[in-house]
Amino acid sequence: MLRTVAALTMATMVMTSIPALAQQGKDECLLASQNCKDQVDSIQQKIAKLNKEIAKGKKVYTPTEIKVLQGKLREVNNQLDDLLKPGH
Prior knowledge:
The chain has 4 helices and no strands. It is an all-alpha fold. α3 runs antiparallel to α4.
C-alpha cells in the first residue's frame, strides 16, 4: 500500500511539472511576442536579450526556435545599422 501511495505521489509530481519544464527559461516575448506586458526595450537591450537567449541553446530552445531568435537578432542589428548610418 505504501508503495502505491508513493508511486501515485511521484506520478502526480512528474505530471504537474512537465509543462513548467517545457517552458522553463524561455522568453516567450522575444520568441513569439507573447507575455510582453508593456515591455519596451531599447535596441541595445533587445540585442543583449536575444544574445542571452540564443546562448541558452538546445537546453532550452528547439533548433527551430533558435533560428527564429537568430532571425530576430539579425532584424534588430539591421535596424541599429540603419539608425547609425550617416545622414539618418
